Amino acid sequence: MASSKIIFHTTMKKLTLDKFYPHKISRNYVLKLIGCEEYPKTLEEISQHFLRNVMRANPRARNTEYGQCRMEEADTSDDENTGSSGSDATADLINPLDMITVVFLCADNFLQQELMQKMSQCQFALPLLLPDSGKGNITFMLWAMRQIVKNWKLQQNASSMEESLVSIKMPFISFIRIGECSVSKSKVLNSILSNEKHDFFVHREMACGDIARKCSDGLVETCTFCPGGKSNVDVFQTVFSILNLRGDARDHLVQLEFLKEISQAIFVVVDNEETDVDNILPLLADAEAQLFLITNQDVLRRIRNSNAITDVWSQLKLEKTNIIKLGKHNEEYFTRKMRCKIADVIKSSTNSRTMEEMAHFAKSLEITVDECENKCQRTKRKVKVIIDKIKEDGVKESKRDLPLQGDLWRRWSESKKEQNRLKKVGDSVEEYICRLVETQREIRIEQAGKGFSDIMQMCVDLLLDKSTIMKMYALQWMKLELNSLSRTSFSSLRADYKQLLVDSTTKSADLHTIK
What are 164's strand-pairing partners? Predict the structure, then answer.
């Protein structure tokens, strides 16, 4: 049997991405890609098709079918060569999860941020723990998710809240499977999260979703539910995140340890009668999270008939109410029951955390944290000094910190606008334009005499670094930190503005006092 490393590199070559591994695809490369066909024409175009379409926030970006319709290919194969097996017909097809995993491993840190943001806009599940079969390590994608911002409302008339995904304090609920399963765990999660049957997670009934995975087992995906404040639409009433471990949990013990530490509840899917259930004890015995078992009648019958297995469940402190039976009721009833269980976990949760807080534990398991890269951390420290200075000075000192803006910039803009519109022109247009140009020149001279403030000098020094990567990190960190500052201010301002609007006795003039 071929090793996972050989299989990984074979998949890379199939997608013609081996020359980009590791982390060599940039945003510039993606922007130069052309074409936007609904289906890629060849196997080699699959990764380009994904990159082009996900950057356009196209919800069909994960489609890995190529050439003619897959069903037509299978029919043609049967007609021409009846001796070929089903596995031969799908030998060159790629599971969407393999394609996503490989693309992220080939993308540089800045493209990863763009891909994450676009996938979030498409409401796709996002890779949180990314396995790299080529190097044999796992990466916690903290930096890649930094740019994602989530909005939510807890009640109909409440103010909307906004926060960076990695900074939201919320409960995490994990789903794992042990052994092979007849039910699609990911499809179950999709039905739990939405009534609209949206495919957040790739599942086996999607196009190419049933193709055997080559290099994405061990991937942990996250999908964050954000309520809109409408009780008749929202299936849950608060923010939380679901984590989905791909593959058999017994084969991915590092990821399992991570999930045991950060989860409020772990739902374990076991619906294969041949699965050695008593091996679950050493996997989950030390889990502090609340445990739930999703299983079928055959497995339950084994549990009841085996004292050894019954002892396992008693040691895991698994109560009867935490055993959810598959196949006993229809899909709608099962979905409602699962939602009730998750809602109870969220309601009783006392240990919410942020993704930023998880980084420390990830490092203790020797999981690589992308944000801990040396250049990223060095730039972050330099930007923090600038941001702390801005916070210390506050808005009142903005005229001192930004001397070229304010009144000087306003006067120059008004003069430039008048030069184009000529609304106040007298008898001589040429003389009037000359006076405006002279006024603009004088303002520029006055601006030039102001010099740099301390903050501006620090920004310039940061951007004069010889390393292009350091400059890119500096600009991105400045953008992220300044956006975070703005969200803090705008959130309170929006709340004040909304309060004035709902107060019918407020005079219209009062609305202008909020600036």
Answer: 149
Q: Per DSSP, what are the bridge partners of residue 221?
A: 127, 244
Quick count: other Cβ atoms within 10 Å of Cβ 266? 24
Single-letter amino acid, residue 137: N
391 occurs within a structural domain: no
If you average pLDDT over residues 476-483, what whole number do you get? 95
| Lowest-pLDDT choice from 69-83, 351-365, 429-443 | 69-83
CA–CA distance, 46 with 99 (Å, rounded to integer): 8
What does the DSSP assignment read for 383-401? HHHHHHHHHHH-GGGHHHH
SS3 call for 463 = helix
Answer yes or no: are the C-beta atoms of 179 and 270 closer than 8 Å: yes
The answer to the question of residue 500 being in a domain is no
Contact 422, 494 (CB under 8 A): no
Q: pTM of the full predicted structure?
A: 0.89
Which DSSP string corresponds to 414-428? HHHHHHHH-TT--S-
**Average pLDDT of the chain, as a whole number:** 87
What is the predicted pLDDT for the residue at 47?
Answer: 94
In a domain, residue 508? The reply is no
DSSP sequence for 351-392: --B-HHHHHHHHHHTTPEEGGG-HHHHHHHHHHHHHHHHHHH
Q: How far apart are CA 243 and CA 259, in angstroms?
A: 8
The answer for residues whose C-beta is within 8 angstroms of residue 107's C-beta and 6 or more apart is 23, 25, 115
CA atoms within 13 A on the CB side of 190: 19
Q: What is the DSSP letter of 166?
A: G
The rounded distance, in Å, linking the Cα atoms of 342 and 289 is 13
Identify the domain containing residue 147 by its residue range. Answer: 4-77+89-371
- Average pLDDT estimate for 182-205: 94
Flag whether pLDDT at 398 surpasses 80: no
Say if residue 167 is exposed, middle or buried (CB neighbours under 10 Å; 0-12, 13-18, 19+). Answer: middle
Q: How far apart are CA 108 and CA 116, in angstroms?
A: 12
Q: In the predicted model, what is the mean pLDDT of residues 381-393?
A: 91
Nearest to 63 by CA among 81, 52, 50: 50
Kindly report, residue by residue over 490-515, the tens digit of the pLDDT: 777 777 777 777 775 555 556 556 54
- Give percent of the chain above pLDDT 90: 61
The CA distance from 106 to 366, in Å, is 21
pLDDT band per the 50, 70, 90 thresholds, residue 226: very high
Q: Quick check: is 498 in a domain?
A: no
Q: How far is 62 from 123, CA to CA, in rounded Å?
A: 12
Question: Does the structure show a pLDDT above 60 at 74?
Answer: no
> What residues contact residue 262 under an 8 Å CB cut-off, 6+ apart?
172, 353, 358, 361
Give per-residue pLDDT as tens, 408-446. Answer: 999 999 999 999 999 998 889 999 999 999 999 999 999
Total of domains in the chain: 1
